[in-house]
Amino acid sequence: MLYYLGQELSSEISALNLFRYLTFRTVAALVTSAFVVFLFGPMIINALRLRQGRGQPIRSDGPETHFKKVGTPTMGGLIILCGVIISSLFWANLTSVYVWVVLMVTIGFGAIGFYDDYLKVSSATHKGFGGHKRLFLEFIVAGIACYVIMINGEIPFSSSLTFPVFKDWIIDLGLFFIVFGAFVIVGAGNAVNLTDGLDGLAIVPVMIAAASFGLIAYLSGNAIFSSYLQIHFVQGTGEVAVICGAIIGAGLGFLWFNAPPAAIFMGDTGSLALGGMIGTTAVATKHEIVLAIIGGLFVMEAMSVIIQVASFRMTGKRVFKMAPIHHHFEKLGWTESQVVIRFWIISVMLALIGLATLKLR
User: Fold this and answer.
1) Residue from 60, 234, 69 nearest 159 by CA
2) Residue 143's pLDDT band (boundaries 50, 70, 90)?
């Protein structure tokens, strides 16, 4: 919205030239989304607390320290989504199809997560939206997004899988790209969802991943920088950096309320939406494999659940004391703050490794 203001009036008011610069709009989106969250956060939290009563159900088999969290409201992702959507509409160039694709997945996954949270809160159990039904809807949303990404790029590159380090190694997936991309997006959404189990645990790694992919989107969408770094140029993806900036700002605002002891939980509303947003950005910028590195913490959390379930079904034994793996470390005696901060450190290190692949060619 404000991008157009800069386009129309910059000749008359030179200061409005700033609105044409992607870097300025990305920082502005960060500040705007943080402001929106700080402004409306308390109001939304109070409204959710009144309507939810007992708040998010606490697992009876979980760490004993979690029982004191009874009554904490969930669906805090609504706060984040408000900040991200409002800020993105203000500062992004809305002619970019990638902006709308990323926002569509973010809102679509957020809606699915909201319904899941609603069912859990209303029934006071962990049984929310049926797993198969939820995954089906997620794949529909993600599949549409991947189709739009594919037809709006240069074929066959838009339907190809690229690899970090090996700049000339490209595999054309054809129509299978839609399935592959949807798997990446759905996997990212659910991996972040599994990570969201402790106060502040998910939101900071999400912000780190958003910052990383904001930089990747900016570089991939810039012909000069992508040529210098010898990464693949994807015209139009630079605008996604604005949404990534909005994610960081909204995340900072949410962390203010989610820091221990949390006043509100993110819930599936936020974790699915944020994971889907990061996954879609990775698919759009052709950095799906790098996502597995930068989002390695989320991969670790998801794999711990898969390993735990597979082991129990095949042998009747559990590999971890409790899954996802952050609960395993709690059962080993780590305090919640130790788990959270150490996982943040791991997330930062993985992000740096992932970004290093931009130069290793």
Assistant:
1) 234
2) very high
CA 330, CA 170: separation in Å to the nearest integer? 42
Domain residue ranges in the chain: 22-356
Give the C-alpha separation, 152 to 158, whole Å. Answer: 8
| Entry field: residues in the chain | 361
Mean pLDDT, residues 95-112: 96
pLDDT band at 70 (very low <50, low <70, confident <90, very high): confident
Q: Hey, what are 195's tokens? A: 């990570």
**Which ranges of 92-160 does DSSP label H, i.e. alpha helix?**
97-123, 131-151
Q: What is the mean pLDDT of residues 271-300?
A: 96
- Residue 356, C-beta contacts closer than 8 angstroms, at least 6 positions apart: none
Q: Phi first, then psi: what are they for 292, rounded to 5°? A: -65, -25
First to last CA, the chain: 38
Nearest-angstrom CA–CA distance, 23 and 29: 10
Give the Cα separation of 351 and 356 in Å (integer). Answer: 9
Instruction: State whether residue 54 is helix, strand or coil.
Output: coil
Q: To which residue do tokens 């380090």 refer? A: 165
Q: What is the largest CA-CA distance in the chain?
A: 73
The alpha carbons of the chain give a radius of gyration, in whole angstroms, of 20
Q: What is the pLDDT of residue 212?
A: 97
73-97 pLDDT tens trace: 889 999 999 999 999 999 999 999 9
Find the mean pLDDT for residues 251-270.
91
- C-alpha 74/C-alpha 319 separation (Å) is 30
Six-digit token string for 272:
């699915």
Q: Is the entire prediction scored with pTM above 0.70?
A: yes
